[in-house]
Amino acid sequence: MTFPLPTAFAIRQVAIQPPLVLAPMAGVTDSAFRGLIKRLGGVGLIVTEFVSVEGLTRGNLKTHKMMKFAAAERPIAIQFFGVDPGRMADAAEIAQEAGADLVDVNCGCPAKKVVGRGAGSSLLRDLPHLATILRAMRRRITIPLTIKIRTGWDDNSIVAVEAGKLAEDCGVEAIAIHGRTRMQGYSGWANWDIIAQVKRAVSIPVIGCGDVRQPADALRRFRETGVDGVMIGRGAMANPWIFRQTADALRGAAPYRPTLQDKRDVLLEYFALMLDECPTETAAMGKVKQLCAQFTKGLPGGAAFRARIFHAQTRMELTDRIADYFTRMGEREAAGELLPEPEEAALEALPDDACHPAACA
Ligand SMILES: Cc1cc2nc3c(=O)[nH]c(=O)nc-3n(C[C@H](O)[C@H](O)[C@H](O)COP(=O)(O)O)c2cc1C
Q: I need a surface site. Which of 53, 154, 190, 211 has the fewest CB within 10 A?
C-alpha cells in the first residue's frame, strides 16, 4: 500500500507544517542551532535537547538555560528525561509556564548514565511506571504531551506498539519513534516496519525517525508507512537544508540546492552565535568544529579540511580556515569540477552512547 504525501499534521491545536521535525540531539540542538535550522526553512516542529528534570526542579541554572528558546523557534517541544513522576510533572508545568507548545518525554536515550537511573529507554522496560509518569504529567498541564521512544530495549523486547497504545490511553497526543532498540545504539538501520505497526495501532499522530539523510528517504518513509511526520537528526547536521529540500519535494518542487557561499555563511553565522552563547571561546570553537566535521563529509578535500579545522587554535585561525576552504571549493567548482552534495555522503555510525555526556548530567 502507498500512502499519499502529507503537507501538514496537527498535535491538537499545534499545526506542524510542513510535517517535518528536527530531532532532539543533546549537545547539538541548542537554541542557536535550532534558530539556524528554522531560518533555513522547511521545519514544522522543533524539539529541544533533552533536559534533566532533576536539574530543573532542583533549580540548576545550567539546566534552566537549556530550556530557553526564542519565539522564532516555535512551535517547540521541550523534552524532559527523568524517572520520578512528581518531578516530571513539576518540570512539565515549568515548561508550560515558559510558553512551550508541547512537552515531550524522552523514552529513548541509550546512555548508561541515563538508563542507569531508570530514565530514557529504561522506561520501556517498565511500562506501568511509564504510565504513572505520563498520567502525572498529563494531569498537571493543559498543553499537549508527547513521547519519543525507541522500538524496545532489545530484539527480545520490542514494545513500541504496546508503549504507543499505553501512551495514548494516558492522554499522550503524539508519539515519535526512533526505529532502533536501546541495545542497537546507532548500529544497523532503523526498523520502519515497527514504526508502521505503531501507526496502524494508535489514532494519535505518529512521527517516524531514523536514517533519513536525503529528501527521497523522507518521501519513501511517508509513502510506505503512512506516518504523520518524519523526524530528522544527524541528517540535519550534515545538511541543515534537508528540511527545506524535503518540504520542496513534498510539494513536488525541485529541492533547493545551497551554494558554497550559503554553506560558508551558515558555518560563520553559527560561529558568531556560539561566541555569544558559549562561556568560553574554546567552547564555541569546539561546537563549530563539531558542525564543520558533519557538514563537509563527502566533500572533496573534506578530510584535510577537518584536520586543519581540528588544529585551529584561535577564533581568527578557525574563521580563516573555514573561509579559505570554501573559497578553494568555489575555485574548483568554477573550474568545472563536480562537487557532491554532503547529503550524498555516508554518515559515520555514532557510538553506542551518542548522548552528549554534558547534557546527561
Ligand atoms: C548527538 C545526538 C544526541 C541525541 N540526543 C537525543 C536527545 O537528547 N533526546 C532524544 O530523544 N534523542 C536524542 N538523540 C536521538 C535522535 O533524536 C534520533 O532519534 C536519532 O539520531 C535517529 O535519527 P537520525 O538517524 O535522523 O539521526 C540524539 C542523537 C544524537 C546523534
A: 154
